[in-house]
Design brief:
Layout: H1 2-20, H2 27-78, E1 82-86, E2 93-95, E3 102-103, E4 108-113, E5 117-118, E6 123-125, E7 130-140, E8 145-152, E9 155-163, E10 169-179, E11 184-189, E12 195-197, E13 204-212
Signal peptide: 1-17
GO cellular component, one term: extracellular region
Pfam families: C1q (PF00386)
Length: 213
Amino acid sequence: MAVLQMLLLLCAGSSLAEDLFSPNVNIIAEFEKLKTMDERIKKLEETLSKVSSENEALKTTVHDLQNKLESFQKENEVKKVAFSVGLLESGTGHTGPTNSQKTLVYKKVFSNIGGAYDSNTGIFTAPIKGAYYFRFYGHCHGGTTMAVSLLKNGATQCSLHAWKPTSNGNASNGVVLTLEIGDQISTNLWANTWIYDDPASYTSFGGFLIFPL
């Protein structure tokens, strides 16, 4: 701004210096021109200052909107929680029987959005407070007994059973639970029972966040 004003004044001064040597010069008129030019420069400076202030305000607004968008995106990512897993990585075989209840560790991970399911322990840990839906399926062969329970923090919520079917047996159960952050969900195979994986009939476990609370 200062450079612009200086250049304009120098040009005006040069022109005035040339005009002063002219016999027809009107000094008062020339000074009036300089005065008018100075007023225009001041108005230009005021306009540029106003534009600069508005630009700073706009930058602040844009920055705030960017922060809100990032916060919304992070919050939305956290709210996406879902998993689907199969019991055996190979997709075929059996687990059991054991002398006591055994936590089923599902090794074949089909999806794990949010990373709340741990394939090393078989435990789902709620990342946020909310209402969740869980469903589990069990498969057994003829002549064997199958019994599996779904647990919340170690307490049984629901179970499925197949008592020595004459041919292959399947069972399924599901439940909606309200979970706090850190609550754990798992499935346990009962003592002295079997559970199987076949290519056409997986023993599986899954769930998802219905809505946060």
